[in-house]
Fold these 2 entries.
Entry 1:
Amino acid sequence: MMTVHEVSRMTGVSIRALHHYDRIGLLHPAEVTQAGYRLYDDTALERLQHILLFKELQFPLKEIRSILDSPWFARDKALEQQITLLQMKKEHLENLIDLARGIKMMGVKSLDFKAFDTKKIDEYAAQAKASWGTTAEYREFEEKSKGRTKEEEQRLGTGLMAVLAEFGTLKDRSPSDSMVQEQVRKLQAYISEHYYRCSNEILASLGGMYAGGGSMTQNINAAGGEGTAEFAGEAIQAYCSQA
């Protein structure tokens, strides 16, 4: 566990901002001590990393919360985009360093400002941002989310986790067992009713995310028992392969 001061020092996010994230439901600490101190675990830090990525893509905080809390959030996709952005920024900084060293050694020989050009970075950031907000599923999710209170969103999220946790009671069966497959259909129907139309293609992607590690896997296993997330992923894979 890390205190809010330690998280602030490590990430560069101000304590005031971390408190604000907690108040608006964007990033809750894993625990609050009796003395009122906020403590953050690895799951909270992973979520903070995603928050910082979407801030780089210039999403408003309200939209970031909607993306991270939605069932279609793809952790691996977000991390891949973050890696690409960091690599591009690293290359940009290296070009600036080379330019500055050249000027120091030889003086200004020509007015070359290409090293200052961030067009490629800006274009990639725009494309990455668009990839989160232009799908039909995202638009449907936004439409269904309009007017929902924070309590209603939490209730739906709790309901979704309860459906996933039920896979934990079926782990002694084969992923292709009829009862297990019925649970997959129940999951698909829940997502379609409350969030967006969950096609088999999207469901398969979600199954990979559930079993792929990170906070979602940890949360499912905490709710349904160790191995529940991985079993749900296998069941979803079996369901989608038969379609």
Entry 2:
Amino acid sequence: MDEIKMYSSGKVWIPASRIDEAKRIGLLQFFKATRPGDIKSVGSEYCLKSHESLRLAPNGMWNWFSQGVGGKNAMDYLMKVENYSFQDAVLTVLGETPSLVTDDKKESFTDTSGKVLQVPERDYSNDKAIEYLLNRGIDREVISFFIDRGDIYQTKDYKNVCFIGRDEYGTPKLANLRGTAGDFKGMATGSDRRYGFGYITEKNGIHIFEAPIDLLSFATLIKSNGFDFRKFSFLSLSGVNVAQKNIKESKVPPCLSRILALHPDIKKIYVHFDNDNTGFSAALALKTVLTDKEVNIQPPPKGYKDVNEYLCSLGKDAENSLDR
């Protein structure tokens, strides 16, 4: 069994296998083990004595009807209802205390900036966030995948969509915000651009984007072409570095630089920046300075500003074809 470790910095590292293990623990199973006095049977399901409208199914799923929130497992409940962090939810569900490790080889990535991320409070529901993303053409399964990971949620104030970027220990370090009404874009106070919203799995190659919406759009395109998007690695850089006049002096965005240092086995980088001068020059700069990597520049098709605009055009074309 892979071990959960706490380093001398106080950071906790949780192996992906243990996160998957935590996700398999349903809320009913968790409550029977930790809070047996608060559950009672109601027909083929269960509810909480303290909140009778919160129903727990034997398969681990749950729904709190009066609050309009539900989930697939105990982790979902702890994060959505009790406002646990992703890391704390995993540890609580597994009932584990990390092993102390003094030789922390990842200490070089400890935040020394003094920034403290003010994570926006989660709303009881993700309805407006989901509606917004669906209207942008994002596939529902793609949305659910990132919501279940705790990396997308709806904020309680203003009902913004919040995209979380985490460090290698699962701790939130960046919160990218997008308004569900209007054109608001921003970041939560204390966000650190060395971290980005994304998903790292297949280590040989990584697809990078300027914004989370484009990342989700590309994952949707992958799925629509019959592939499992979960087998690809994605990273949103939350903007790009402006290329220097002498392109060889351009810098790699800190978010990408950090990931490449953590995963030196990543050999291929697929760049999906915007179809504008900034996007083109930033992509070319990466190809120039990352001489030890295979950098493939893959902008959206000509005539489309970004990946999401291209995705939305496909939806419109499909609707028009149905009309004909």
